[in-house]
Design a protein that fits this description.
Number of domains: 2
Shape: globular
CATH topology of the largest domain: TIM Barrel
Largest sheet: 10 strands, mixed
CATH superfamily of the largest domain: Aldolase class I
Low-confidence stretches: none
Strand order of the largest sheet: 10-9-8-7-6-5-4-11-12-13
Radius of gyration: 19 Å
Number of strands: 13
Length: about 325
Amino acid sequence: MIRIHKSKDYNWIFNTKTGLFNRWGESIKDDPQFSPIGPEILDIEISTVCHQGCKFCYKKNVSIGKNMSLETFKIILDKVKKNLGQVAFGIGDLNANPDLLSMMWYCKTNNIIPNITINGYGLNDQSACQLAEICGAVSISNYDKDVCYNAVKLLTDYGLKQCNIHQLLCEESYIQCLSLLEDIQKDNRLKNLNATVFLSLKQRGRGINYHPLLKYHFNFLVGNLLNNKIRFGFDSCTANKFLLYLGKHKEYKDLEQYIEPCESNLFSGYINVDGKYFSCSFSEDGDGLDVVNCKDFITDIWNHPSTIEWRNRLLDCNRNCPIYKI
C-alpha cells in the first residue's frame, strides 16, 4: 500500500510494503525542519519486563516490571495515528506482554507498520512465523551470539525480509563489533540478514560507566563496512558522526539522502509504558506528558511548550544530541 500526505510545506509518500519513505517541503529540494501534524514514527514501550539484566542497559530493566494494556495502547494510537506510519515496539522479553500481537494487528488495521526489537530469547517457530507475517522489520539485539544468529536464521527462514541485527557501539563492545563483521561474511545463519544497525552508547542507567567509541575505532569500523560492502546502518543519534566520516567521499551526496539525524520531537517521539510522552527513550526524566488523558495530541503534546523547547534546542544543535556525547 502507498500512503501519501500532501500540503504546501510538508509532504511525504510511504510504501508500507518496502518501507521506503520520502519527505519533502514546498518543492522536492526542500527538507522540512519538522512535521506540523505529529510524528511519523513512534517508539512505544509496552513492557519493562526483561530477564537479561545487561550491564549496559540504559533502562535498568529487570525481571519484574510493568505491561501496557491493550486498551491503553488503542487509546494512544487513536490519538496519534493521523500522521503515523510506523510504531517501534519497545519490549524486553518477547513473551512479556500477552497483548503484543493484538497491538500489532491494531496497528495494521490502521495502516501503520509495526516493528520490534527483541533479544532473541524465547523465539520459537510459532512466534517467528507470526512476527514474519505481521512486522515490517524485526531487529535482534546481539547480546548472545548464538541466540542472535539463530533468531536471524529462524525469522528469515519464515520469509522475513527486513531482519536486522542491533549492535551496541562503544569501546567495550568494539571487538564484538569487529567479530560480527567477520561472521556476517562467513556464518551461513546470517546469509539472509538485511543489515546490521549500530546503536551508539548513551551513558545512562546501567551503561553509565561504559565509554563512547573512540573516533579512530569508529573510522576503522566504517571503513571495514564500506570496503567489504556489508549492509549496515546507524541509529539517528550517530548520523552526524557518520556524515563527518564520509567527508569528501565520492558518493557523499548519494549517501546523504539516506541519512536522518536525530528526529526527536521533529518527526518522532517516545511513549513509555505508563502512556507518558518524552522526546525519546533516552530522555525519560520527569513526569512526561500524559497522552492517555490529553484532549488533542497535536495541541496538548506535539505543540506543548516543553516539546517546542526541545525541538528548537535540537535544531540549534544542528540535530546533534543535546544530552549525550555520541
